[in-house]
Amino acid sequence: MVRFYTRDHENFTISELGDIALSIDHEKIMWIDLLQASSTEIKQIEDIFGLELPTKHDREEIEQSSRYWEDSRLIKINSYFFVSFFFVESAKSHYNESVSFVLQDNILFSVRDSELQTFDMMSKMLLSHPKELTSGYDIFMQIFDIRIDKDADLLEYASRESDEIRKKLLWERESHSIELLRKISTLQEFTLKVRQSVFDKRRILTAMAKSPKLSKPIKEDIVIMMKDINSLIEFIAIDDNTLDNLQNLFLAQTTIEQNKIIKLFTVASVALMPPTLIASIYGMNFKFMPELGWSMGYPMSLLLMIVSAVIPLLYFRNRGWL
Predict the structure, then answer these.
(1) Distances (CA, A) of 90 to 85, 170, 259
(2) Where is 82: in which H helix or E strand?
(3) In the CATH hierarchy, which top-level class contains the domain 2-255?
(4) Which residues of 136-153 are buried (b: 16+ CB within 10 A; e: fewer)?
(5) Which carries the bigger pLDDT value, residue 86 or residue 158?
(6) Where are the domains of the chain?
(7) Nearest CA to 164 among 195, 193, 187, 191?
(8) Average model confidence (pLDDT) for the chain?
(9) Labelling 294: which of 53, 74, 273, 317 has CA 20 to 30 A away?
(10) Which of 4, 28, 229, 6 is nearest to 110 (CA)?
């Protein structure tokens, strides 16, 4: 699907590739969004505007030169957009979706394979506040600004979840469950993916700040966005340390509980050793044992076993081991 966002005076209109006249004035076009576009649609856009759009393979390249590229005509950008499904129990509940952008002749081309909330918000903003956006560069900067705000909201969510886990570990009994450990691990992966997305935005904006194609107001906006990103990076570092501490706290509590169990069995073993020794002695059945013919031998042996078991227990209790 290919959508054209065209500006006519102070209003934006949205058109599909099949509906729009190909002879439309390119100066009116601000943004062309290619969502799961077919190879035919991509080829048609490339022929109309005389450019080469990034392929799926290009979007997934991790080299710095592949993430941002600029020449005298255009700027090509491949960026990560974090996608999260909080309530989906699956291995791919958090991942980074690669999106490509091309800026040429004040037109923004975006190529993506998935529905993303950021782009839906951008589309609504164009229709509700058209006066604030006058070029493809403005739209691109606004998309990044929305994405940065969204990443900040996600980090705040992760921080709240970390606080809840810490309270459970410190104040709730039987909190050291496998579900809690899985939640800590999920939050660590969550934070890692957000950090990857935020660092990617910082690299792109750093490169764009040096571009001669950008106007002074846009470069001033980049400075503000870089400050926001740096604050997010500091927040991510704190959250990473918090999650590491939570994991260590979980392991420490698990170790304490295991030690309690081991201590209980150790005390029980030591307390049962004297009775076991007495029972073993009187269970040997030698012919010449004085107590064998004694009528009080059996109750006396039971009493000895009880006393020999109680004495170690009292000793452990006085030492504070029980």
Answers:
(1) 9, 28, 34
(2) strand 74-84
(3) alpha beta
(4) bbbbbbbbbbbbbebbbe
(5) 158
(6) 2-255, 282-318
(7) 187
(8) 80
(9) 273
(10) 4
